[in-house]
Specification:
Blueprint (H helix, E strand, L loop, with lengths): L2 E6 L2 E6 L17 E4 L3 H10 L3 E8 L4 E7 L5 E7 L2
Parallel strand pairs: 3-6
Antiparallel strand pairs: 1-2, 4-5, 5-6
Length: 86
Amino acid sequence: MIDVQLWLGFVDARARDEFPEHGALAPLNPSVVLYLHVDDIDAVWDRALNAGAEVVREVQDAPWGEREGQIMDPFDIEVGAYATSS
């Protein structure tokens, strides 16, 4: 990935690879958690773990009616995933 641009309403959010030759380095500790709403959190969770993600917080049913958890991806980006409980 070189550059990903997401338009969320009027907000322009971007993610980019590091470019050490230009002084653009990723932080050592993540300052944000990217949360994704998914239809089948268990399938997404298994896929992420099989791809090398590490568990930060196991998937669990939350009292507000969602099933959610957090992982650290192989690039040290913390990602949360959640789905509405059925």
